[in-house]
Amino acid sequence: MSSKIHTTHIELPEFTESIDTIIEYAKQWVGDLTDREQEKIIRLFKNAQVERRYGMMSIQDIFSEKSFEERNNIYIKASTDLCEKALRNALKKSNTQPEELDIIITTSCTGIMIPSVDAFLVNRLKLRQDIVRLPITEMGCAGGTSALIYANEFAKANPSKTIAIIAFESPTSTFLLEDKSLTNAISAAIFGDGCACAIIKPTEEIRPAIVDTQMYHFYDQPRLMGFDLKNSGLQIVLDPDVPNQIEKHFEKIIFPFIEKNKLKIEDINQFIFHPGGKKIVQVVEDLFGRYGKNIEPTKEVLREYGNMSSATVLYVLDKFMEKNIAKGEYGLMLSFGPGFTAQTVLLQWR
Fold first, then answer.
1. According to the model, what pLDDT value does residue 200 have?
2. Residue 30: left if φ>0, alpha if ψ -120 to 50, beta else—which one?
3. Which of 34, 38, 111, 146 is least enclosed, having the fewest CB within 10 Å?
4. Are residues 216 and 253 in the same domain?
């Protein structure tokens, strides 16, 4: 038996609102700006192609005066509860007992907690006392793919091990009420909260196996994406040049990686792409479209949940796990994150 991604499970936070409700709160938020500024920001919300978002905070709390400490405490409690649910349900779906877990990898970038969430999960689920923990922070939107890359390294060294990956994010906890910049408005328009879990273990069932992985680093572009730490919280950094940089580097990211594995783009049937936002999705859709490929599941996730940072690509993967994909088909997973970096995973259903 070979190690594969056996199971994925998504877990949604407690609160949810439609984009129409969010826009009404956004109108109040920017009510003291000029008419032109208000119109520009509200247009961002309307055109973000996100119909509904979920949150670990209620919309009333999001648009209220809360300190960094108060928001971060909500992030800690809600994330821990959500991760526990996600892990329990993923273990149940994969017919895995908590004590069978050998390695747990967690990733998040939208809050601060020490010890990391995996320490609490060890106690709540009574995981083994010798379980290996790997918390990943500061990888942003690439974190979910990064976690799979690290899991693959563990699996190659220890093929019999069972590994859990949990990606959880609460961008709503990072919303800065006093920051009415276009960058913060874009973040508020596209980002939502979510949690996803994947179980990697040896199995004879037809599941996606990780064939190869790659981290591609853009030189001299550390300010394209990330956070600045302010007294009031985490302030989003989103350079409008991100889509252009992705387009510029796209072929250098994809084609050498595919060719190294003796494949062509025509051999790839499934595309599991992280939906950073409308413009990034449009750029990547156009690029893949040249080769007759589509990223419909990516667009569905953006529309249904928004960009949940590291968790989002696992939401997209979950849609593929629900499909009846034939043995032998290849899939390509791709995420972009702070650094600036592109994280790529080649999958084959075996």
1. 98
2. alpha
3. 34
4. yes
18 and 140, same domain (yes or no): yes
Q: Answer whether 308's CB lies under 8 Å from 192's CB.
A: yes
CATH classification of the domain holding 77: 3.40.47.10
Interacting residues of 84 by C-beta distance below 8 A, sequence separation 6+? 120, 121, 124, 125
List, as own/partner pairs, every contact residues 30-35 make where C-beta atoms lie below 8 angstroms and the sequence separation is at least 24, other chains included.
Answer: 30/180, 30/185, 33/180
Distance CA 280, CA 244 (A): 9
Same domain, 173 and 268: no
Domain termination residue (choose one: 161, 181, 203):
203
* Shared domain check, 290 and 271: yes
HSE (side-chain half, CA atoms, 13 Å) at 236: 30
Q: Is the pLDDT of residue 282 over 90?
A: no
Domain extent, residue 23, equals 2-203
Mean pLDDT of 168-184: 94
DSSP letter assigned to residue 72: H
pLDDT digits (tens, 9 = 90+) for 318-350: 999 999 999 999 999 999 999 999 999 999 999
> Which residues are 309's β-sheet partners?
none
**Could you tell me if 278 and 338 lie in one domain?**
yes
- If asked whether residues 66 and 199 sit together in one domain, one would say yes
pLDDT at 167: 98
Task: Mark whether 74 and 134 lie in a shared domain.
Answer: yes
Q: pTM to 2 decimals?
A: 0.95
Q: For position 1, what pLDDT does the model report?
A: 67
pLDDT at 294: 83
Give the separation between CA 3 and CA 202, rounded to whole angstroms.
Answer: 4
pLDDT at 125 over 80: yes
Arithmetic mean of pLDDT, 297-324: 96
Please state the domain count of the chain.
2
Sequence-distant (6+) residues with CB within 8 A of 301 are 275, 312, 315, 316, 319
